[in-house]
Predict the structure.
Amino acid sequence: MLEMRGITKRFPGVLALDRAELSVNGGEIHSVIGQNGAGKSTMMKILAGMYAADEGTIALDGKVVSFRHPREALQKGIVTVYQELSLLTNLTVAENMFLGREPGGRIVMDNRAMLRKSREILDRLGIEDIDAAERVIDLPLARRQLVEIAKALSRDLKVIVLDEPTAALTNDDTEHLFRILNRVRETGTSVIFITHRLREVLAHCDRGTVLRNGRTVAAVDVRKVTEKELIEAMIGEAVELFYRSGWSPRAERSSEPVVEVRDLTVGSRVRGVSFELYAGEIVGMTGLLGAGQNELARSFFGIEPDVAGAVFRKGERITIRSPEDAIEHGICLLTENRKEEGLILAMSLKENITLPSLRSFRAGRYLPLLNARREREAAARLIDKVGITARSASAKMSTLSGGNQQKAIVARWLLRNLDVLLFIEPTRGIDVGAKAEIYRMLGELAAEGKAIMVVSTDHNEVIGICDRIFVMFKGRLTKVVPHAEASEELLLAEIQGWRSHAEG
Amino acid sequence: MSRSRTRLLAGRFLKDFGLPMMAVLLVVVFSALDTDFLTVNNLESILEQNAALAIVAVGVTFTIIAGQFDLSPGSVVALCGVVLAMVLRGTGDLPLALAACLGAALVCGLANGLLLAYVGINSVIVTLAAMIWARGLAIGITGGESMPFVNPAVAFMNSRSLLGVSPVVVVVVVCYLVGWFALNRTRLGRYAYALGGDAEATRQAGVNTSLYKLLLFLLSAFFVWIATVVTAARMSAGEPNAVYGLEFDAIVAVIIGGGSMTGGEGGIRKTIVGVVFLAILNNGLSTMGMRDSAFYLFKGIVILVALIFEVISRQILLGEAAKRPVGGAA
């Protein structure tokens, strides 16, 4: 029914897909699995017409097709539901479901017919508690996810792609979703299901394709494989060794914690978490998407609303209400969104590094002038220290690679002498070589006595580089795994709450 | 719960009734200061004086909702008025003059629309440039002089002969009906909201967003045309220096009515409230015989107060909405 053959896609510095293959039958639920960065999303974006493949073909019902625009994929009956919801919150549920294909004439719409049809679709899918006339902004997130799926299913479709649809759903909603998908399957539609949750794959899918480093490494009949086989296909030996090489035993961590957290609660996402961070160690924080690890890290930077609990810094209680407060207390956060953390692409590397430290380069006590030489020297020292590769210190930030931009932010905060560094997904979207560089830098910083916390959903990453791994499950810190005991299997079990929580 | 509910209700109340109440307050203040203010005669002349603003605001409602800015209407009204006067003086043919005027308005709208939708220049810059070049063209053509014309239609437009009301008032009412229909019943209106909500998501839904941006500016140009005709009839001339700042008044009216600067929010009813408020303010301040300096000072302050009210009521509402449970079947 759907055949993707020899799909290759390059991004600057990354080979995202390397002759990847995907073959999906009509009327099956087909899971695409792989680690973050394995190429799942890129593959699906090519299928949806968002990206063009550099090489390879897509065939639908035996006919080769090519999409230059998402619209063309939609017209061929390929609908994708992305992880980031694409609903327009200022419109109603019905208006969203029929956006771009409103019933009625070419100019005038038939709003009444649209509302009626929307209600029919919601009824048919058994979604009873959503009114089609309600504005999306008034719905909670999990409901919005169902609206998104109902919207996709309201089309005349051949293939529906769901990108981690269950990440934000409760167990009940997940079960509900699969009941809906089973009905969809019976109509002969193919469902492509992307997820990290192997349990869901084993319980509900018919076949699966495993991607690793941009290649298809296995196409399996889900009913005939074990979980262990799937995990091994996902990880691969070579990858495991690569990550392991990033860690080396360090000198003793500090005896006193530099940060102590008691009963930290962030909205409804983080519930009563307590832990300590020590100087000279790297702590990993992992869990399923939405388990609260991001909110936890962000709360340390004063950018989450509704934070309760106590944070102690070297024994003293502190309050962090803004990034300024955090920096004042020597804490900084680096997120995967480099613009959000204040990288100014139009300015030079040097200027980006010294931006928050300009006060320390004052030429004289009374004159508000910059001592350009000292600024230049400081920037050069930091560039060397964190190992940034750039043409020169005055190179525009926009010309640097993702990995080097990430290091520039680190350099910026090191110049401020911050000693608690929190990272969210520090290596997302950067290539393997740059990853190794970042790991080396993190190791050196820890050896120098910084306290480092890395929030990551990449298990190999946390296993490879962290001294201790905190596992979060549904907003709680459920397990602390020391480096020596860490394994992929253990983490997979822990992040899904299999050990400490009853299933279902 | 009850406190949160009180805040929610207070926010809704402020949002729905805050501005109308302030408008009533203005009326009370102005009629206390001037006994002639609250007369049928004056109320009708308020509408006549602000007809161009009211009509232009309909088009601006669409562009603001779509997350776009149109700074050109004032200058385009001046330019098209000059075109109307020229053709009318040259040929005496009213339909031809009206058509030429419409053509000029649509060309301006087309130029703006093509540049921002297909070349991809920010709408503020494109229409700011249009505001400058259209004014320059209008002044250039006339040498800066007013271009009076004579036509029987002028007398009709300035009479109150249509069932006792001014044809201008009828035109304004029809514009709002057309605007309401276009915004709520046509694809163009729906896509205006969608574009303002999230242009990329709208594109991914298969909507030709460039085309609809262009159409929005053409629709806006249509209302600019009508505003031009009303303005020219009122002055019985093509006036190259007419209606400076009309676009800003229109944008202010849409925003204080409850439109969002970032797009996605707004509506005809909201615009009506904003326009009425601004019209009362304009008329009241000028009948008080204020000097220009005082007029602008007071107008600016009152607009700020209205905007602060709008923002506060919105924040109360959003704050309460954010506290609603997230996730689960809550």
Q: What stands out?
A: Chain A has three domains: 2-241, 256-330+419-430+451-504, 338-418. Residues 500-504 of chain A have pLDDT under 50 and may be disordered. The interface with chain B takes residues 70-71, 74-75, 86-91, 95, 99-102, 104, 106-109, 111, 129, 137-138, 140-142, 168, 170, 172-173, 267-268, 305 of chain A (CB under 8 Å).
